[in-house]
Amino acid sequence: MSDTAAILLYSSDRTVREAVKAALGKRVAADVPPLEITEAATEPIVFQALDSGKFDLAILDGEANPSGGFGIAHRIKDELADPPPVLLLVVRVADAWLATWSGAEAVTMSPINPLEFPGLVAKLLR
């Protein structure tokens, strides 16, 4: 196991990125390494980051604009040879079908439940 768990966090909304980081803290479980979070506010930055390094998880905001997390997740799964697991943040329960289409491994509602979110992230990182 590496020294850190590398997470790519994408949202065009700074407050969403801050909420995710606050909910996760520095470590999500005793058996998961400390987190190293790389933030991205645009789609090009997401793919630059993915091209330049190995990430253990991508957390994508489905409501981001102009590029939503659903489409980015779909591109990640279609275009990358070894894509990281993807966790999508959704606002509407009805968007679950889009998450399935995108290939995301997990979906959670936004705003984030700080009691459940770290456990979901830990599960995906294991």
Word description of this protein:
Strands 2-1-3-4-5 form a 5-stranded parallel sheet, sandwiched between helices. The N and C termini lie close together (10 Å). The longest helix has 11 residues, at 14-24. The protein has 126 residues and is of the alpha/beta class. Helix 3 runs parallel beside helix 4 (96-102). The model has no long low-confidence stretch (mean pLDDT 95). Strand 1 (5-10), helix 1 (14-24) and strand 2 (35-40) form a beta-alpha-beta unit. The chain has a domain at 91-126. It has helices spanning 14-24, 43-52, 69-79, 96-102, 117-125; strands at residues 5-10, 35-40, 57-61, 86-90, 106-109.
